[in-house]
Amino acid sequence: MKTTATGVIALITLATACSPGIRAGADFAPDVDFGSFATFTWDEPDTRPVGDPRLENNPFFEARLHDAMERELNARGLRVGDAGAALTVHHHATVRDHVEVYEADREAGYTTSDYGEGTRVLQYDQGTLMVDIANAETREVIWRGWAQFDITAALNDPELMSERIDEAVARIFEYFPHSP
């Protein structure tokens, strides 16, 4: 029993170690006083393809994404407003096949694979989320945040999808230049 538990723990650790984490970042207009804004509204939905039919025009995905972004914006002192809101929030998501090839960790015992001695290949569905925030009056983008992450398992699990969205959006907004 102890050996089985140890094996399961090792497999979980290996799966977690091989799965890429969330990579996030942002860029913004340095001359903008983000503290001067108090309200935002949602921009029109994007018409560009997502790249996966499970998310294409999916109202549940859209609602999860809006909920996560609204929580993060609220935490930074911004509230949903009406047509006269100061900011407009726009987002776009894509899903693409992604392959990473790297040298295996020989010290950990990984020496052979189907791709040759010392080579490891990781293939997954990479989700990319882009969030643009624009000055509603000028329509100029003043902040852009992004995140990329492995979305493979979440595509078939709504609860896991909610968790991944929450994690990715939280990581994106770590780079937002204003907190009250």
Explain what this protein looks like in three dimensions.
There is one protein chain. The N terminus is likely disordered. The chain has a 6-stranded mixed β-sheet with strand order 1-6-5-4-2-3, covered by helices on one side. 28% of the residues lie in helices and 31% in strands. Helix 2 links the parallel strand 2 and strand 3. The longest helix has 17 residues. The radius of gyration is 20 Å and the shape is elongated. The termini are far apart.
Keywords:
6 strands; disordered N terminus; six-stranded mixed beta sheet; alpha/beta; 180 residues
Outline: elongated
Derived from helix and strand composition plus strand pairing, the structural class reads alpha/beta
Major sheet description: 6 strands, mixed
* Overall strand count: 6
- What is the distance, rounded to the nearest whole angstrom, between the alpha carbons of the first and last residues? 52 Å
Quaternary structure state of the chains depicted: single chain
